[in-house]
Automatic annotation (TrEMBL):
Circularly permuted ATP-grasp type domain ranges (all copies): 101-479
Domain spans labelled DUF403: 528-828
InterPro entries: ATP-dep_Glu-Cys_Ligase-2, CP_ATPgrasp_2, DUF403
SUPFAM superfamilies: Glutathione synthetase ATP-binding domain-like
One Pfam family this sequence matches: Alpha-E
Protein name per Swiss-Prot or TrEMBL: Circularly permuted type 2 ATP-grasp protein
Transmembrane segments: none
Length: 844
């Protein structure tokens, strides 16, 4: 395609010769699709000025620097686990981001923003009528079947005045350019629009990759949008300083990372359905301090799964009684249950009329021409034009009619599928719509050093704020690797791009820091949700157990490499090591007596053994993933690195030296994780449960090791190994110059309060934690965890090492296991019968 050499020439004239040649090569090699609007070139074939500015700056980078810059920035994606999940898959995928943003000028963006704001206003008015007086149905403007045929129409919300005064708090529209270059609405998103958190991540990565360019091009910031969004949610509550929750389907949601990131960025409480309980017309969060009121819930759970009592009884994602609490005004849930009905394609054909009727305006952004087959004339028109129209489901459904999940041409379908679809179209025409075939417009992406066109969809968000609707200056852009696509989802061939809205003047920098309003200073433990406490507790236990198993495996490896050690010449202590690993589930019983190296390898990499290191690390990763919003980026990155190194080591057999090297590296990573938790986490309730898990696990392990390696008949080799496993060799040798003896070793490992590895130290630390955790009742009586721990700590504090027996050590171990169960019963999820606090009031 011929380019405007005047415009391009002016830009190239300011470049170094090599950069000018590179820019010229990019432009000449770029081949837009015939008849398809493109972002790089305008309708006359001229490169747009803002794209020339961007590409010109890229061309000035030294050879390879562009790739290097983007590669370094995208390490953030890998190191922090930015990910998504395809529906039906168990594993997550790394977030795919294009190195080039989608660029839009301020004048064009203003038109988009006005159109999206109008569309959001129309959706709010439509939902207000559908769930209110229903005048549109009564006067025949809307067929009732176009609403009630949708699974997203929640009949139980009819006549309910929305708490907070609105049905929609956030709206999104999927946009593409039409054949004439105008922006068209492809789909409305009113249920629980996703992607805003990913838009934040995309912006973070690209602003890191090209910081000077990002500032020089006056890219509009996203922070003002999210500030208004947060203030709008707070304003919906009926009290100041409300508790705002983001309700997630859980870690197996396709966009769980985004939900966690958004909750962390906005300061919301990330909860799941089991974290909430509806009682007396209100909704409460289960916390370690009892039930605390939830004022506003931003939901990412589809309405059908929100309340198993009144909606889908098979749902495990919602909270029984949620709809009743909404009806009584006890909680604000946004977007309101039932708002997803406005997403139905059956309504698209009615939108121009609805805009005139409800707003008195023509649509600023037209949508794809759509005909609902539930009406006779429209059905006959679709049937007469099946060869040129796309057929799509009329309603959102998990069981799409005719096997359709998106618009498809009849001609593109296999004969059997085509016959099935046509039969269903005749039997249930109201389940289908016919749509004008739309090929998506394209934007430039970089592939193998060349610019190539890629179809894209732009999702634009509007949030209700105290000042009215506010549109995000940018959005969530998805591109496809295939040229002929009509819809893009985050599947096999989709990537994402940041969206830069370019202003004509420097933009004001802004963060979410409060400025005008008074913020009350607090120093409290925080109302930690029970589920988060549970996961933090087990994260601590899994990591501690993994460390203990690593130390056992290291001892197996060193027994093979040190020719002077007793472990190499005698088999009794070596067998004891293997018995310990079998008892801990790191080896199966048939492994007793196998080569030490084979035992070490299995203890590290056996994915089926529940006590192996890789199994424990993955269990820790799952626990961490369930409360990712509470962990630092560094902590998560270290955990991912630990799992990655273990997984790579499992691919090939390791020699003694290689196995030892991997064990040492893993121990260093575990130590780094421990250091982060000790030095970088605030000493609030979350940290205490993480540390309690570690302390209980360490105490149990110490008792088990002492029972196995320090019985009355213990050998010098046994005691030496015990000190090594407990990381107490240096301390013992500095304190005792006479050599190894049973009683001093027992004292140091079990009763010494100054040894951070001893049982006594764990018991004292656990006492300190329980002393500051909140009490559920105010009757002054000890709660069960304290009833178990205080006698145990006293007995350990007053014990004499000479009187210790294996039976007594076993009693200590069992007491710690009882303590673990009591902590779970007291602080973690309790089902529908969770014990409330004494003050279960509006101010709880």
């Amino acid at each position: 395609m011929a380019a405007d050499t005047t415009t391009a020439g002016r830009r190239q004239a300011h470049l170094e010769p090599n950069a000018a040649r590179r820019l010229s090569g990019w432009l000449k090699g770029y081949k837009p699709l015939a008849g398809i609007p493109d972002e790089l070139f305008d309708a006359l074939g001229r490169p747009r000025d803002h794209w020339l500015s961007l590409l010109g700056d890229f061309a000035e980078y030294p050879e390879g620097e562009f790739t290097s810059r983007f590669g370094l920035a995208t390490r953030h994606i890998r190191d922090t686990g930015v990910s998504y999940r395809i529906y039906g898959e168990e594993s997550e995928r790394s977030w795919p981001l294009n190195p080039l943003p989608l660029i839009l000028g301020q004048k064009e963006w203003a038109q988009i923003a006005r159109g999206v704001e109008q569309r959001a206003t129309l959706m709010e008015a439509l939902l207000g009528d559908l769930y209110g007086e229903a005048k549109l149905v009564a006067d025949g403007s809307l067929p009732a079947a176009a609403l009630t045929g949708s699974v997203d129409f929640v009949r139980a919300m009819r006549g309910v005045s929305p708490p907070g005064g609105r049905h929609l708090q956030i709206y999104a529209a999927d946009l593409g350019r039409g054949p004439d270059g105008r922006w068209w609405v492809l789909d409305d998103r009113t249920q629980a629009p996703s992607g805003a958190g990913y838009a934040l991540e995309n912006r973070l990565v690209l602003s890191r990759a090209y910081p000077s360019l990002y500032n020089a091009m006056n890219v509009e910031r996203l922070a003002p949008f999210f500030d208004g969004f947060r203030r709008g949610l707070a304003a919906a509550a009926d009290r100041t300083d409300p508790r705002i929750c983001l309700l997630s389907p859980g870690p197996f949601s396709e966009t769980y990372f985004e939900q966690a990131h958004l909750a962390r960025y906005l300061g919301f409480l990330l909860v799941e359905g089991d974290d909430l309980v509806a009682r007396d017309g209100r909704v409460y969060v289960r916390t370690i301090a009892g039930l605390k009121r939830a004022d506003v819930i931003l939901r990412r759970v589809d309405a059908d799964f929100l309340d198993p009592l009144e909606l889908n009884s098979a749902s495990r994602l919602g909270t029984p009684g949620m709809l009743e609490a909404i009806r009584t005004g006890g909680v604000v849930v946004l977007n309101m249950p039932g708002s997803g009905v406005a997403e139905s394609k059956a309504l698209l054909g009615f939108m121009p009329m609805l805009s005139r009727k409800l707003l008195g305006e023509e649509l600023r952004l037209p949508n794809v021409a759509t005909w609902w087959c539930g009406q006779r004339n429209e059905r006959e028109m679709v049937e007469a034009n099946l060869h040129r129209l796309a057929i799509a489901p009329a309603f959102n459904s998990r069981l799409d009619p005719g096997g359709l999940s998106r618009p498809q041409l009849i001609a593109d379908m296999a004969p059997e599928a085509r016959a099935t679809l046509l039969a269903q179209l005749r039997d249930r025409p109201g389940d289908f719509v016919g749509q004008e075939v739309v090929r998506l417009s394209t934007m430039p992406v970089l592939r193998d050093g060349k610019l190539e066109p890629a179809p894209f969809v732009l999702r634009v968000y509007a949030a209700w704020t105290p000042e009215g609707w506010k549109v995000m200056p940018g959005g969530f852009c998805r591109t496809s690797e295939r040229l002929d696509v009509r819809a893009i989802s985050m599947g096999e061939d989709a990537r994402t791009a940041d969206v830069w809205v370019i202003d004509d003047k420097p933009v004001e920098r802004m963060t979410l820091m409060a400025s005008k309003e008074e913020v009350k200073v607090r120093r409290i433990l925080g109302h930690l949700p029970s589920r988060a406490a549970d996961n933090l507790f087990w994260l601590g236990r899994y990591l501690e157990r993994a460390e203990a198993t690593l130390r056992l495996a290291r001892s197996l490896c060193t027994s093979l490499m040190d020719s002077e050690t007793a472990l190499h010449t005698t088999g009794e202590t070596l067998a004891c090591l293997q018995k310990l690993l079998i008892e801990w589930g790191a080896l199966d019983e048939e492994a007793l007596g196998v080569r030490a190296l084979d035992a070490a390898r299995n203890a590290l990499h056996d994915q089926k053994a529940y006590g192996s290191v890789i199994y424990l690390v993955r269990a820790a990763q799952r626990a961490a993933a369930s409360m990712r919003e509470r962990l630092s980026v560094d902590f998560w990155a270290l955990l991912l690195t630990l799992e990655k190194e273990l997984a790579e080591g499992a691919q090939t057999p390791l020699s003694e030296a290689e196995a030892l090297q991997q064990i040492e590296s893993a121990l260093q990573l575990v130590a780094a994780l421990s250091g982060l938790s000790q030095e970088n986490m605030n000493r609030v309730a979350g940290w205490r449960f993480l540390d309690m898990g570690r302390r209980i696990e360490r105490g149990i392990n110490t008792c088990r090791l002492a029972r196995m390696l320090a019985p009355d008949a213990a050998t010098t080799d046994d005691l030496d190994l015990l000190l090594d496993l407990a990381d107490s060799q240096i301390t013992y040798r500095a304190r005792y110059l006479v050599g190894l003896a049973l009683t001093p070793v027992r004292d140091m490992l079990l009763l010494d309060p100054y040894n951070t590895r001893s049982l006594a130290f764990q018991a004292q630390t656990l006492k300190d934690h329980l002393a500051v955790l909140p009490s559920l009742l105010e009757d002054g009586m000890l709660e069960e965890p304290s009833r178990i721990l205080l006698p145990l700590a006293t007995e350990i504090e007053t014990a004499d090492a000479r009187d210790l027996t294996t039976a007594r050590m076993l009693a200590f171990e069992r007491a710690l296991m009882d303590l673990s169960g009591a902590v779970a019963d007291r602080y973690f999820l309790q089902g529908a019968n969770a014990v409330p606090t004494l003050k279960l009031s509006a101010l709880a």
